[in-house]
From TrEMBL:
Claim: Signal is one of the keywords in the record: yes
InterPro entries assigned to the protein according to its UniProt record, in alphabetical order: Apaf_helical, LRR_dom_sf, NB-ARC, P-loop_NTPase, Powdery_mildew-R_dom, WH-like_DNA-bd_sf
Protein name, as recorded: RPW8 domain-containing protein
RPW8 domain ranges (all copies): 1-151
Cleaved signal peptide residues: 1-23
Amino acid sequence: MAARNAFEMALVTLLMELLEAVALETKKTARFRSPLKRLDTTLRNIEPILYGNGRLSKVLDRPENETNMFILHLENGKRLVLKCSTVKIWNAYKKSVHANRLIRLDQELSDFFQVELQDNMSISMRSLTEVHALGVKMDQALSTVTNRAGGFSSSCSVPGLPDFIVGLDVHLQELKHMLLKDANQVLIVSAPGGCGKTTLAKMLCHDDEIKGIFGDSIFYVTVSRTTSLKTIVQKLAHHLHVTNCEFQTDEDAKNQLENMMSQMGSEKILLVLDDVWYESQSIIQDLRLPIPGYKILVTSRSLFSEFGSTYELSLLNDEDARTLLCHSAFPFDESQINVPDDLVIKMVKCCKGFPLALTVIGATLCGQGELKWRTTLQKWSEGQSIFHSNSELLLSVQASVDAIEHLPIARDYFLDLGSFPEDEKIAASVLVDMGVELYNLDKEGMYTSEYLLELSSRNLLNLIVARKDASELEGYCSDHFVMQHDLLRELAIHLSSQEPVPQRKRLLIEVHENDIPGWWIEQTQPPISARLLSITTDETFSSVWYDLKAPKVEVLVLNTRGKNYTLPHFTKTMKNLKVLNITSYGIYASELLGLPLISSLSNLKRMRLEHVSLSPSIHSICELKNLQKLSFIMCEIGNALESCPIDSPPMLSTLTELEFDSCYDLKEMPARICDIVHLEKLSITNCHELDALPKGLGSLSNLEILRLHSCTRLAKLPESIVNLHSLVFLDISDCLSINSLPDQIGELSALRVLKMSGCHGLEELPASVTNLSLLEDVVCDEETSYLWSYYESDLCGLKINVVEDDRLANFRKIVG
């Protein structure tokens, strides 16, 4: 009993000390006033429990380990509060993390005393709305920092680890010892592609000892062949929430980085540069800064011996190699193997201990019988190779592509992935657009999804499935992305480049600086016969184009990183062009010039613009006579859409799909959108500044899909929406400001699916919802599900799908 009383006294003392610390820090700093006041309120509500008759004993009537853990939380909480005034005002990143930890401390207090607080505390609806609004703002901030609509990522956080790792534990200990003990500032991890360098670097960053030493000051940057010093510094600046970072020169970027690093207040800093190419070694030199405790870890296929310290990652030994191969080839039950052991041993030896080769070949042979293993080995023994003889790893990977020869479209998709820059996410919807025109696939993406899953199962790409509930209505590939290992991308490019340039089915061109391929400059080549043309340029490209005769091109992919980008003048001669995809992978949106060139492309059907700034010349798009799908992804649009002449013919009269995603400056849709009479699908998502839809939206009589997901300022749906009698799918999820639905929404007689999770301002449903006789699925949060429960008996066959809404928790998980 005495021990219990002593424990209670210790708890009371700690809580009182925490309350005093909160009061002190609230007076000293305004930076964390909001979370500190919130914490103070929680502590004031807890205080009566401490002195009430038996109430504290009731709270402590739980397992000893749980109460001991809470004591530890309080001790850490006090230190956390007292550190508020030490966080630098300029360091937005640490401010965000610290504020998040204060919020989490408040939640831990509330959770621990929940038994009593349920009777003493209530949260008003307004407070709930404010918390939800904070979550949405956090989402927007996080989206700005970590996402680029599935493409460019400015986050420098450490990526997660693979599910299965073998043979790297010893390497991890050796690398960690070198990093901590070696006097050199730079440490290189070197090995051929596909050997596990990136995985080893991630393991190091996730190691508890390393995290204990470097804390939050671990930054991870993937360096592609076109990455510049300025791009890296801009990424770091964005990650640290340092704004207005414009660099005139590399020297300027280096100086500003040194200032940022010096002012962080961290004793130890670790910068990881993953996959640095030989041509980019100058970047390593430029990032060496005279800052105590600052280390750079580089992974590269090159040795870079001039930097002093190199850890050469060896290949897997036979035992680990066999383990990895068998894990990939026999994922379910190794005891059921029907392949002779000698074949497994020979396959392991042929893979030369390369982890990627073992994984890819294992997946290729998964479920195959002895004959397939023998024929694969026979091909290798006969010297069949897709690369030069000095590349043993790529020889092994050849079999993975040979294995899908019976799936020619899947193989084509694999080769098409060479059209995009390395280390970037590729929206699966881009591949759908290409597949529709090149391979006559369905525009909903069902077959594309099937082929991508097939390639993913063979480890030929990494398919990132953002949403598993995508259906035919939204598109099977909706919000999904594809990534490809550098080695496999090189394989795709190599396979696409076997014939002479004029005869290639797909022509993939990379231009570094202004180094145009010689065959192009000389103009001695006959017209190319490629159906797919991809041109990738870096941020230094001056948009000076040489003529190119490409009369058969049907898909044109243009990748840029520059601030300004002018369309190639020869685009206007591509009379067979059906798909145009223009993407900027730079930090800032590229200003797109030369758009009038496309006005003569009478066969252009699908156009996607991503991360570009559009000028008033956007009217050239409005004049396209046969365009069926138009997508603006993370584009700066402003009022450009208003520039389409009013007296022109009906705007985009053949358009059936129109998409706006993450266009942050889009505030209002122009009324002329309602003139696109054949429009079947309208998607406006993550446009947080959009506050109004055209009043005449209901005139889109053919509209079947309307997505308004995460348009957080959109206050209401136009009344005319009830005239959309062809509408089968409506998504207003996370439209935070919508507090009511049109009274006659029941007139949407064809509606089958309604998604509305996160509409917390909605207090009631119109009585007319009982007329939605075809409604099959309502996807909403628990709070909204209660509104629908009153009408379940009137809507036969209705299924209410309740989804969790924990945006704040997700934010804490990422930045906490």
